[in-house]
Amino acid sequence: MSNPYRVISASITEVIQESPLIRTLKLLPEEPIVFKTGQFVELSIPNIGEGPFTPSSSHYISDRMDITIMKTGFVTDYVHRAQVGDTVGLRGPYGSHYPLEKFDGKDVLILGGGCGLAPLRSLFLTLLHDVDRYKSITFFAGAKSPQDCIYKDQVSGWRQFPTVRFVRSVDAVPEGQEWNEDVGLVTKLLANLDIDPKTNPAIVCGPPLMMKFGTLELLKNGFKESNIYLSMEKKMYCGFGQCRHCVMGPYYACKDGPVFTYESIKNEEGIWE
Ligand SMILES: Cc1cc2nc3c(=O)[nH]c(=O)nc-3n(C[C@H](O)[C@H](O)[C@H](O)COP(=O)(O)OP(=O)(O)OC[C@H]3O[C@@H](n4cnc5c(N)ncnc54)[C@H](O)[C@@H]3O)c2cc1C
């Protein structure tokens, strides 16, 4: 990357309100942004600020980009006020990516919850592009309640692939919301797994507690530490190892991550915070 601070402007072509707190921006950058699935970009709102976000679209598409964003604070509040036709800035991509070559011929397991589904949708759509390269893809997706489920309009299309299993579970079904799929913490879906844990990869992203208990459950199932891939969404600013805000032991979450194997970071302090 020649100038890591270089900002490319992108116009918002569509806004999808996925759930009360999560929306997907469909963006048209003024020039293509080539990234590998798992990497992130810094998205800025002019005169307001910026934050790290992972594209939620396939890495085979570089002239457009989807970014799915949860409203959590100052910048994301402005993101949630943005409208079609507005412009945002994008810089990057930064960081590590999912090692797709290691997933060839495997039963790929994806486990995520909340807005952690954003990088996982990028991975999933990228895998679907070459779906025959993988023996199967199992995607366990969690949400707090039916109305918090995201990518609702795409689920039935994904379920058409014969080697894809897309299973959703919600923590609870409040009165007045309809649901006829699984109920319970998404990690419970791991209880009856029919995938050989010794040879297959598992990719995890979501709220810290979900990542922690999901990883522990995978280990209990017999998954290898080196086959569990975690996307670490640590607080970070510059995105490329200058500001040192995201140091994790010998690693920078921005530069060496955000994608790490559990094996590589298991002894670092505060990985589940
Ligand atoms: C590599 C990476 C990829 C990410 N991808 C996505 C994504 O695709 N979609 C998405 O919605 N969010 C993603 N995040 C989290 C996102 O960056 C933060 O939620 C956002 O920057 C918060 O900005 P804010 O100004 O609205 O929040 P603030 O007002 O700064 O803070 C509000 C709350 O958010 C927490 N927070 C702030 N920055 C971060 C951060 N970088 N990571 C985690 N928590 C944070 C604060 O501790 C505080 O609790 C990602 C984070 C990283 C590091």
Structure summary:
With 273 residues, the chain is of the alpha/beta class. The chain has helices at 74-79, 117-129, 155-158, 208-221, 262-265, and strands spanning 8-17, 22-29, 40-45, 49-53, 65-70, 87-94, 107-113, 136-143, 164-170, 182-183, 202-205, 228-231, 247-248, 251-252, 259-261. It is globular.
Total domain modules: 2
CATH architecture descriptor of the largest domain = 3-Layer(aba) Sandwich
Largest sheet: 7 strands, mixed
Provide a count of the helices: 5
What topology, given as strand order, has the largest sheet?
A: 10-9-8-7-11-12-15
- Fraction in beta strands: 25-35%
Q: Which series of helices and strands comes N to C?
A: EEEEEHEEHEHEEEHEEEEH
Q: How would you sum up the global shape?
A: globular
Q: Structural class, judged by helices and strands?
A: alpha/beta
User: How many strands in all?
Assistant: 15
* CATH superfamily (homologous) name of the largest domain: Nucleotide-binding domain of ferredoxin-NADP reductase (FNR) module
* Rg over C-alpha atoms, rounded to the nearest angstrom: 18 Å
Query: According to CATH, what is the class of the largest domain?
Result: Alpha Beta
Ligands bound to this protein structure: flavin-adenine dinucleotide
Q: On the 0-100 scale, what is the average pLDDT?
A: 93
Measured between the Cα atoms of the first and last residue, the distance is 30 Å
Reported by name, the CATH topology of the largest domain is Rossmann fold
- Are there runs of 5+ residues with pLDDT below 50, and where? none
